[in-house]
Amino acid sequence: MKILKKVLNLSGNQIAEIIIEDCAFTKLKSLLLSTNSLQSQCFHQLQFIKSLEELYLNENNIEEIPVVGSEKGHLILKHLKLVDLSSNPIKVITCSPR
Prior knowledge:
Blueprint: E1 7-9, E2 30-32, H1 42-46, E3 54-56, E4 64-66, E5 82-84, E6 92-94
Parallel strand pairs: 1-2, 2-3, 3-5, 4-6
C-alpha cells in the first residue's frame, strides 16, 4: 500500500514501535511522531522513507541516536533537513567514520 500524503501526524498516540514497508511512503516529506513511546530502534525503520525532510521525534523514549552515514547498516536520509529530538533521555550518539 502506497501512502501519497506529504505530511503524516501520529503525535500523541502512545506508539511504541513502527514498522514501515519499503517504498510505502514515496511522497512523505514530514513525519510527526512526537509524544509517543518510541525507542532508538525506530531509526532503522525510518530509512525506508527516502523523501523525508522533517522528522519530529520529540518527547519519546529515545536513548541512542545512530549518526547518518553512507556505510551499510547506517541510517541514510539524504533529504532530511530538520530533526527534533528534544525531551528524550538521550545517552549515546553512535558515530562511525564514512
